[in-house]
Specification:
Strand content: 15-25%
Structural class: alpha+beta
Distance between the termini: 73 Å
Strand order of the largest sheet: 4-5-3-2-14-13
Shape: globular
Helix content: 40-55%
Radius of gyration: 22 Å
Largest sheet: 6 strands, mixed
Low-confidence stretches: none
C-alpha cells in the first residue's frame, strides 16, 4: 500500500511540474498580447513571478531527488522566460568609478514628497542625493501640485544643481543643460501624462521623456472599500480594477510607441510604468529601446518598496544613439519608490 502511494505521489509531482511548465509558457506568451483583448492575459502576465518561483522550487526538488530527466521540465520553464529573469536580475560587474559617461540621468516617483516631515524637507533631501550622485538630468513623477505648496519653492530646492527646469501637471524634469524645447501631454481618459524636453548637451540635442503610466488602482480601491464599506474590497472588484487599468496602460504605451518611432536623435525614456517586466507594457517598450538595467545593471532590480520590495516598475530606456554604461538603484528612502540612475555615452 505504501509503495502505491509513493508511486501515485511521484506521478502527481511529475504532472504538477508539467502543468507549471505550461503555465510558464503561457505567462511568456501573455506579455505579447494586449490587455485590451481580455482579462485573462493581463492577469496571467502578472502571475509570472509566482509561476517562476514555483518552477524554481520544483527544479530544486527534482535535483535533490536526482531525477535528471524530470529536472528538464522546470528548467525549460525558467529558460523560456530568460528575458524576464534578465530584466529582474543582472550580474554585470560593479561599474568602475573611472568609467566616463556623457550624461547621467535619474528617475524617481517622488510620492508628492510626502515621505518626510514636510514636502520641502523631502525635496531638499532628494536634491542632496542628486548632488551627491552628480546627476545631470532628473525626471520626477508625482511632483506635488497642491494649494498649500509652492511649485516654485520646491523647484528652488534643486536650483543649485539644476539651473534649468520644466514642470507641468504632476511631472517635472530638472537639468544641468539648457532646455531648448518642451511639451506636456496628458493621456486620454486618465490624469497620467508624459513630459518631453530637448536638451542642448554639447553639440547634441537629447530628447528626454519622463512618463507616469496608469496605476493598477488596487491600493485606491482597497482604501475606498475600507472607508465606505468598512471591509476589504472583494476579489472580483480587484480583478476588474486591474483589468481596466491594464487596458488603459496598453493604450498609453501605444502612444509612447508612436512617440519613440518619431525620434531620430538621442532619446531617453524614464519613469514609473506601473508594470513589471512580465507585462505587455514592458515588452512593447523593450522591443524598441534598450533597458538600461539589462545593459549595465547589477543585482536584483526592484524599485517599489511595498509588497515586500519584489516589484520593478521604474525604468530608464535609451535608443541606439546612446549606450548605457552604468545603472544603479539607490537605497535612499525618500519615497515609496527607489530612484534609478543610468549613465550614457553617445554612439558616434
Amino acid at each position: 500500500m505504501g509503495r502505491k502511494i509513493a508511486v501515485l505521489f511521484d506521478l502527481l509531482s511529475v504532472v504538477t511540474s508539467g502543468l507549471l511548465l505550461a503555465a510558464a509558457l503561457l505567462c511568456r506568451h501573455a506579455s505579447d498580447i494586449s490587455p485590451e483583448t481580455g482579462r485573462f492575459w493581463a492577469l496571467l502576465a502578472l502571475s509570472m513571478p509566482g509561476v517562476l518561483l514555483l518552477n524554481l522550487a520544483a527544479l530544486l526538488y527534482w535535483l535533490l531527488r536526482r531525477r535528471w530527466l524530470v529536472c528538464l521540465l522546470p528548467l525549460a520553464a525558467l529558460l523560456s522566460n530568460g528575458e524576464y529573469v534578465a530584466a529582474m536580475v543582472q550580474l554585470h560587474p560593479a561599474a568602475d568609478a573611472r568609467t566616463r559617461s556623457d550624461l547621467r540621468v535619474a528617475s524617481l516617483n517622488a510620492f508628492n514628497f510626502n515621505l518626510g516631515e514636510s514636502r520641502y524637507r523631502t525635496a531638499h533631501a532628494v536634491a542632496g542625493i542628486m548632488s551627491r550622485e552628480r546627476v545631470d538630468v532628473l525626471c520626477l513623477q508625482e511632483f506635488p501640485v497642491f494649494a498649500d505648496t509652492s511649485v516654485d519653492s520646491l523647484l528652488g530646492c534643486f536650483t543649485p544643481r539644476f539651473p534649468y527646469s520644466v514642470q507641468d501637471g504632476w511631472e517635472a524634469i530638472l537639468s544641468r543643460y539648457p532646455i531648448v524645447n518642451h511639451r506636456y501631454a496628458q493621456f486620454a481618459d486618465a490624469w497620467n501624462a508624459y513630459l518631453l524636453v530637448d536638451l542642448a548637451v554639447g553639440g547634441d540635442t537629447v530628447r528626454v521623456v519622463s512618463v507616469h503610466l496608469q496605476t493598477t488602482g488596487v491600493a485606491a480601491l482597497r482604501a475606498r472599500y475600507r472607508k465606505e464599506h468598512d471591509r476589504e474590497a472583494p476579489v472580483v472588484a480587484l480583478l476588474g480594477e486591474v483589468e481596466r487599468n491594464s487596458r488603459l496602460r496598453a493604450r498609453q504605451v501605444h502612444e509612447l510607441e508612436r512617440l519613440i518611432d518619431s525620434v531620430r536623435g538621442p532619446l531617453i525614456l524614464a519613469g514609473d510604468f506601473n508594470d513589471t517586466p512580465s507585462s505587455y507594457t514592458y515588452r512593447r517598450i523593450d522591443s524598441r529601446l534598450q533597458d538600461g538595467f539589462r545593459a549595465a545593471g547589477r543585482g536584483y532590480g526592484s524599485t517599489f518598496r511595498s509588497l515586500g520590495g519584489v516589484l520593478r516598475s521604474d525604468y530608464i530606456f535609451c535608443n541606439d544613439s546612446l549606450r548605457c554604461v552604468g545603472y544603479r538603484t539607490l537605497p535612499d528612502t525618500v519615497s515609496d519608490h527607489r530612484a534609478v540612475i543610468a549613465d550614457f555615452r553617445f554612439v558616434r
